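Practice problem 4.
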């Protein structure tokens, strides 16, 4: 891999070859590609997108991706798309305990369930928040999502993600980003550092982003350093399969899933170069920033990736993390304040405790606070923080995250079914009593 052009977004231009001499030099698509390979361009943005935003990669492969069979419908009740796939729900705060681990023989595709979504994939706006749980690897099977890119956030179990451009291995605490339209499959690795439960199963979260590709946020007054650095995003080395045999392709298009069978593997790219690539990122490399005087900073200070909308400063999707960090400020209540927000927030917990909900929010679970739905620390966290000594302390072994969107999330019928939803969530604020000591009526004390 080589870092060449400092392009806006991730700042990286990659190149890789699995066999020496297969990457053309000097021409993107020569008349005859070395060693009998085919040249294929994959574009993640319009051809005429500004140079700084344009994303594309050249692939040099043993067979082009047009060599596939016809598609037929594939049934998948759990994976719905956009706001149209949800059901009406009151504007309440919602919370889920850890989602159940898969039982039986389930791979990544069949183990996906949409929790909530917004927008419209065909309009290229909005996103879906999904959870996955699986017990076996995808073998001769590949997924191609033309509706959006997929950000995988493992919570239990390590994953081996095979893509057209190479292989990424990720574990809880790391994330993987697969571009729209790129074929990939998910394998399970043992010894995944699971947070309890079935060690043979994997579980985690997915952001299916229908909108503009996720990129690094601008740093503004922060300056040139801080948050996530482009150099810490790792693209795979080129690798290809040469095992003979048929492959099943599952393609997601316009909110529906389709199945085709082709005679050989789609993972046949021998060399590639460009800036559209699957990436992995270790969240321990995130440079967390916070207050060194007073006031709790906005959670936007923890943004790792952003998908911009047509309104500057108002994201289609922000991926935000709450990692281990030092907490110190003068005369300031340090857990998040109670608030209502224009943006809608879907949260998950990878491991540890979340400081604003120390007991009620557990790894593998989730919460949803939609646009202008009041939320904040529970009564226990409020009481503890209000009386704690204002001395430096560090939050250790914790990783929460948020998919934040300008659009209201619509939960699915699956997510609202009895047994999944925590129907007593609002009780965590019940003990926040009226404590007003009115100075104009001293006798009330």
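Answer key:
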């Amino acid at each position: 891999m080589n870092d060449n052009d400092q392009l806006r977004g991730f700042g990286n231009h990659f190149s890789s070859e699995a066999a020496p001499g297969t990457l053309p030099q000097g021409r993107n698509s020569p008349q005859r590609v070395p060693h009998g390979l085919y040249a294929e361009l994959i574009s993640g943005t319009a051809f005429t997108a500004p140079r700084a935003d344009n994303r594309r990669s050249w692939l040099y492969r043993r067979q082009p991706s047009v060599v596939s069979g016809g598609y037929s419908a594939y049934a998948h009740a759990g994976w719905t798309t956009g706001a149209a796939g949800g059901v009406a729900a009151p504007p309440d705060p919602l919370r889920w305990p850890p989602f159940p681990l898969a039982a039986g023989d389930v791979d990544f595709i069949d183990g996906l369930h949409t929790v909530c979504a917004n927008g419209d994939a065909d309009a290229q706006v909005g996103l879906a928040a999904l959870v996955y749980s699986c017990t076996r690897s995808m073998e001769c099977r590949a997924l191609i999502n033309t509706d959006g890119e997929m950000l995988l956030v493992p919570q239990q179990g390590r994953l081996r993600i095979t893509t057209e451009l190479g292989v990424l291995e990720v574990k809880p605490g790391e994330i993987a980003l697969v571009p729209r339209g790129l074929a990939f499959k998910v394998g399970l690795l043992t010894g995944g550092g699971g947070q309890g439960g079935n060690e043979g199963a994997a579980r985690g979260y997915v952001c299916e982003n229908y909108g503009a590709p996720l990129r690094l946020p601008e740093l503004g007054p922060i300056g040139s350093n801080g948050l996530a650095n482009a150099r810490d995003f790792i693209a795979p080395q080129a690798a290809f399969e040469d095992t003979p045999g048929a492959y099943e392709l599952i393609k997601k298009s316009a909110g529906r899933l389709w199945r085709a069978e082709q005679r050989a593997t789609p993972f046949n790219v021998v060399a590639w170069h460009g800036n559209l690539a699957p990436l992995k990122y270790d969240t321990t490399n995130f440079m967390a920033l916070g207050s060194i005087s007073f006031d709790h900073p906005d959670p936007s200070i923890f943004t790792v990736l952003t998908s911009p909308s047509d309104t500057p400063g108002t994201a289609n999707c922000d991926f935000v993390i709450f990692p281990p960090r030092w907490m110190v400020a003068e005369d300031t209540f340090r857990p998040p304040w109670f608030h209502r927000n224009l943006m809608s927030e879907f949260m998950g917990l990878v491991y540890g405790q979340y400081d604003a909900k120390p007991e009620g929010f557990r790894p593998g679970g989730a919460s949803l606070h939609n646009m202008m739905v009041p939320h904040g620390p529970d009564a226990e966290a409020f009481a503890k923080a209000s009386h704690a000594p204002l001395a430096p302390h560090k939050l250790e072994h914790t990783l929460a995250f948020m998919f934040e969107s300008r659009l209201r999330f619509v939960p699915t019928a699956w997510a609202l079914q009895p047994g999944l939803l925590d129907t007593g969530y609002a009780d965590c604020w019940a003990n926040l009593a009226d404590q007003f000591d009115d100075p104009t009526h001293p006798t009330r004390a």
